[in-house]
Structure formats: C-alpha cells, structure tokens
Amino acid sequence: MAITDWPEDERPREKLLAHGPRILTDAELLAIFLRVGTRGQSAVDLARTLLGRFSTLSRLCNAPSHEFAAVPGMGLAKYAQLQAVMELSRRALAEDFEDTDLLDSPTAVRDWLRLRLAHLTHETFCIVLLDARHRLIEAVDLFRGTLTQTSVYPREVVKLALARNAASVIFAHNHPSGTAKPSHSDKILTHHLRDALALVDVRVLDHLIIPARGTPMSFAERGLI
Questions:
Q1: Tens digit of pLDDT at every position of the chain (225 positions)
Q2: What is the CA radius of gyration of the chain?
Q3: Which of 221, 209, 148 is nearest to 177 (CA)?
Q4: Would you tell me how many other CB atoms lie within 10 Å of the CB of residue 34?
Q5: Contact in structure between 176 and 121 (CB atoms under 8 Å)
Q6: Within 13 A of 163's CA, how many CA atoms are on the CB side?
Q7: Which residue among 1, 66, 194, 199 has its CA within the 20 to 30 Å range from the CA of 42?
C-alpha cells in the first residue's frame, strides 16, 4: 500500500508536521528523505530495508557510495543527497559553537566530532582552535594517515595556533579500527604537543579519540593531559 493511502495521522510527513521529528522512528525519518519507494515497497518499507542492510542508522549514513548505491532503488544521486544532509548537519553544529563556550557543552562537541571523523576510513588528526572564551575559531583537519611522533609536527600545530590567535585547543583523531583505546604513540604525541604549545601560552584542553563506532575517549577525563 502506498503511503498516500495510509490514514493521514500515520503518514511520516504529516506526523512530523503535526508533532515534530522526535516522535518519528528511524525508518519514518528516512522515508521522508527517500520520498518514494520502489515497486512493491513504500518509502517506509524501503527505509526498513536500508536499515536492515546496514544494521544501524550510523552505518547507513557513513556507508561507502558503492555499497549504498548497490541497494535496489538507491543510486549515486541519492547517496550524494544523503552526504549533503550529513555535511549540512556538521556545518549547522559548527555554527552553533561560534558564540558558545564549548566547555559548557562537551556532549555536543563530541557529537560534532563524531559526525566529522567517525565515518572516515583513514586516520585524520583534527585541531579545534578556541578563543579566550572557549568559543570556536576554526576546526582544521591537519594531518592524515597513521599518527606518530613523526607524522604530526608540533611546529605546524604551533604555527597554526599562533596564526589563528588561539588561546586553547582541543585535539581529536579517529580510529577506523573501531577502538577508542589510546595507543602509546597517542599518549606521547599528546604530551609533545601540549609541551610545545605551552611555550607559546596555548592550553591543550583535551584530546578525543573518535572510534568508528562507540563512545569517544577523552584524555582529560582519564587524567592523561
């Protein structure tokens, strides 16, 4: 049965307009994005198929283009639309941080960094530059690849912090392997960067490890900074 044949109060779009998006299921929200289903499947049925294929909403949104497009009824155009929605979410969160003390919203910062880094298949080192009131100046993906003492250069980090007139920074990098456990190299690198930035009076507030799945790990919370 097509969604247009459903009772009006059960249609995802009408439910959202009447009651807001929070009451909708993942499948109903995804159906609004998809707009139409396929032969024999409503948009909600197709959404359930997608969620079943990728197990979680996170894996669906971060799936490689070829895997997403391989699902009947999907394609590269729909994949591009989904990635545009994800990027809009990242940018909207970043705008919210511009006039906000980030230390007052650590959960939002983690969610934003997860959106930015968790889906990547390669390690990326990000530096979040903050002003004296802990407001966001800029977030920069500074290095890509396996992180070691030799791949992340303290001199480049210091130069960037000084160029942006940052008073403090938060570091973050992802672990595509899926674990948030810091390696010995992660710890040594963090201490080297902290000591280098201290020489120019820039404080390192935290270093977050973002796993492909699961909860980010905070160096500050574990007393590692």
A1: 566 657 666 789 899 999 999 999 999 999 999 988 888 888 899 999 999 999 888 889 888 899 999 998 899 999 999 999 988 988 888 787 777 777 777 888 888 898 889 888 888 999 999 999 988 899 999 888 765 544 778 999 999 999 999 999 999 999 887 788 888 888 999 999 999 999 999 999 999 999 988 889 999 999 888
A2: 21
A3: 209
A4: 22
A5: yes
A6: 8
A7: 66
